[in-house]
Amino acid sequence: MDEIRRLFAAYIASHPVVETAFWLTALILAAVVVNFVVKVALVRILNRLISGLSFINGPDLVKSGVIARLANAAPAMVIASWIDAVPGLPAGIALIVRNVANAFNILVFALALTALLKLGEKLWQQRANGTGRSVKGYVQIAIIVVYVIAAILMVAAILDRSPMILLSGLGALTAVLLLVFQDTLLSLVASIQISSTDIVRVGDWIEIPTMNANGTVRELSLYSVTVRNWDNTYTTFPVRKLVSEPFKNWRGMQESGGRRIQRALYIDQNTVRFLTDAERAEFSHLRRLTDFIAERTKEIDAWNARLGPAAAIPANRKRMTNLGIFRAYVENYLRDHAAIRQDMLLMVRQLAPGSDGLPLEIYCFTSNTALADFEATQSDIFDHLLAILPDFGLNVFQAPSGRDFSSLSSDLQADRAAQAAPKA
């Protein structure tokens, strides 16, 4: 055995290339063995230990692959540490191999750090569920910064130069970098403004007519916003549009618990008139008008009593109108409605009359903010008002249709026939 060892050593000494290849192969085999031991043994053991820890979300940490990515640095570290010990290897080649191995290690650590950042984003979303606040934009910014720093360090490691030398040369490329990363910088500023002012969150219902977006925010990232519209389509637009374009956020309505009804009944002005005493007495039996008519009657009687003999002239007297009675009925009806918020603004008002009639606007808030419930409540209210409107001697204004002209033509023909008939 000693003789064989002596002969092998003599052969290696007389053939330096073989010696270099031998030790280089041994170094590669050592790196392979270290890689196998670290990934198969240590990584699996660490993953099993960490997966059982609940206070650091062990299963999520294992799934993120942070430890597995860090394990890739072990063989490169072996090569970088022992490449100079290989006899006969040119110094230039050893330097290149060591620098490449160091650059590879920097890349591995950068990938592990980005995986850790994504894990932090996932944990944030789990704990901040329901708040709508998203940190995806900040995570993307951090990932970009990590990759930029990693790229500078890798180039510096390969060239075997100080990173400060590379950074000093970036000053001349500032204008080019600003042009290349223009969208990124604008998106970064917009993301900071959105986060600091809290104008938009994930889950908000927003409406942006210029972007054809009307729905809930599904994703709010560094570069783009994804909105799921009510027709189940998706609209994606740059995040900077949220600070440069006008939009409506319905979050305030949802948080307040009241959704506005603002709709008008167009009254035919020809049907507005004063009430007779008999009609006033009849309306006083309506539960929603009893108190109003009693109080209003006292005011009117007191006013007319002060007029004295002048009250005999109808134009001088104060009287109730069917429209005023109906307006009071609508307001009291809304105040009795279980689905109307009584702590929010509620009023029934007249708008400026026009060719479409006299608008009687209903302005109130429902306690149901969901679209289907809101529309059902609004429809029930106007169903009732339209049905009871004729009881007050009022009609809804409606543009004449073909049926109306046909009825008018029939009436004219009947009048002509009656006039042409011989008198008895």
TrEMBL record:
Pfam families recorded: MS_channel_2nd (PF00924)
Source taxonomy: Bacteria, Pseudomonadati, Pseudomonadota, Alphaproteobacteria, Rhodobacterales
Signal peptide: none
Keyword Lyase tagged: no
Transmembrane segments: 20-46, 95-117, 138-158, 164-181
Subcellular location: Membrane
Protein name as catalogued: Mechanosensitive ion channel
GO molecular function term, any single one: mechanosensitive monoatomic ion channel activity
A GO cellular component entry from the record: plasma membrane
Keywords: Membrane, Transmembrane, Transmembrane helix
